[in-house]
Amino acid sequence: MNKLAEELAREAMERIREYESRDSYKKLKELIEEGRELLRTYYSEYRKEVQYFQKEAEENTDHEKYASISNVPRGILCPGMIQFLVVGNTKRGRFTKKPGESGYIYGYDKEDHLIWADMKEGSIRNREYIFWKNANVQLGLKYAGEEQQLEEITEAAYDGQGRISRYLYGSFYDGKISDAIMELYTYKEMKAYVTLINSYLPDDLGLFHITAGSQGTEEDLDSDIFSDYINGEHIVLYLDDTDFVTKYTRYTDEYPDDIEECVPKYKLKLSGAHVPGTDKADKKADRSWQNRMAELLKCLKTEMGRKRKVAKLVDAFENMCKISTDSEEEMLLFETGIFDFTGEGMFYFSLVRQFPNGEGEYFQLHLDVMYQPDQENSRFCESIWDEDLEENFFDFVRNSEAYQLLRDRSAKKVHVYLDET
User: Fold this and answer.
1) Residues 78 and 224 in one domain
2) What total of structural domains would you count in the chain?
3) 351 shares its domain with 389
4) pLDDT 10s digits, 348-402
5) Cα separation of 235 and 239, whole Å?
6) Are residue 413 and residue 300 in the same domain, yes or no?
7) pLDDT digits over 130-179, tens only?
8) How far are the Cα atoms of 161, 315, 416 from residue 294, in angstroms, in the given order?
9) Would residue 261 be called left, alpha or beta, if left means φ above 0 and alpha means ψ between -120 and 50 degrees?
10) Domain range spanning residue 216?
11) How far apart are CA 296 and CA 217, in angstroms?
């Protein structure tokens, strides 16, 4: 290691050690250790129970649902909310009609309670068994390997109003915790105050840990910075009257003055989604979505009037999308290409707003703007969902080459309709 690199490493270590001496860091360490102790308790209780859960799943599985791939535990049904907010490039996934080559398959019992989740990669399926330990605590257990060792544990705890109060995730190696994540929620008025703690602190510190100030090798210096360290963040979630997150602020415990204000990438709701007893209310709400979709269809047609130019039509569709449906599973789709849906090949510039219908399928509200195919528009063919975008959906649409080409042209046909998958 050259002198400059060595000095930078020393400065980084000094900054981290100064942070670790603060009371706020010590409090984070106390909280995560409480969580880690709870994970160890669950491990002792369930590490030999894989055969029981296999039998329960076999006897009680009634139907399945499917979702695309995600990079958080349990995919779109992950009970933890903060990873969807603060982790860069996190894919939440979306529900799909059929299982894909990669993605999630969810198993439900006859009462539509989630009892297992498979992460599918080709022919490989890693299963998590999910159950309610009591009325307010849901556990997930994932066994892996030929010996089916317990390798991951997830806990989601809810308060009396069905709002999440704690999310805890831990991974194990050879019976010891290798890392842990904790989200702690408190509520006041229309806000949720969340502490997020990431811990990559192995149960066996002797593998990497050296004491501050000791003389070690270059490898030791890097290990010391990252092996014995806890990262904490503080997030304030601003909620509407239906417990959906409208915006949030965040700062790290290490740098409390660097406050960031953001709008969530996904629609997130903090209550009711996973708690037993909400099913009947949810299904009643599902049945009302058809009426709501009819209202949205009427709204879109009114906004459009007799407009034929794509710029005005996109504006109308965006205005319609500002009317909330309170659905966590709502999605937007942008498609272009030449299709023969009506017996005549036409170039389609299409926008779709999708909602669950309450019966495992989806309503889709379509705006199809059609043009005569030509040499210019025939080169455009794409299909993209809003969840796959880092930017605002309508900004992406307006910045697309197809939009720029067509914005001032009059469409040959415009079709607005509602259907179901």
Assistant:
1) yes
2) 2
3) yes
4) 999 999 877 666 567 888 899 999 998 888 888 888 888 888 889 999 999 999 9
5) 13
6) yes
7) 999 988 899 999 998 888 999 999 999 998 888 899 999 999 988 899 88
8) 31, 19, 12
9) beta
10) 3-262
11) 65
